[in-house]
Amino acid sequence: MTCASCANSITNEMKKRDWIQDITVNLLTNSAIVEFTGRENANKLVGEIEDLGFEATLNEETLDLPDDETRSTK
C-alpha cells in the first residue's frame, strides 16, 4: 500500500463480504486486522485482497483461534 486511497479500497471492498465482521487497515504498518467468520474463509480473504492488487499473507495466530473468533493480520 502506498497511500490512504489504497487502504480505503481494501477496507471498502472487504466490508462488502458478509463473512467479514470488521477490518482495520493500517497504512503505516502496511497491515490489516480482519475479524471474520469461518476458518474456511481465511485463504479466501488472502485471495480477494490479492485480486485487488495488494500482497496478503495470514498471520500464524489466525489458526489458533476458534472459528467464530478468527482474526487475520496482513
UniProtKB/TrEMBL annotation:
Q: What is this protein called?
A: HMA domain-containing protein
Q: Which GO terms describe its molecular function?
A: metal ion binding
Tell me the SUPFAM superfamilies matching this sequence.
HMA, heavy metal-associated domain (SSF55008)
| HMA domain ranges (all copies) | 1-57
Q: Which InterPro entries match?
A: HMA_dom, HMA_dom_sf
Q: Which Pfam families match?
A: HMA
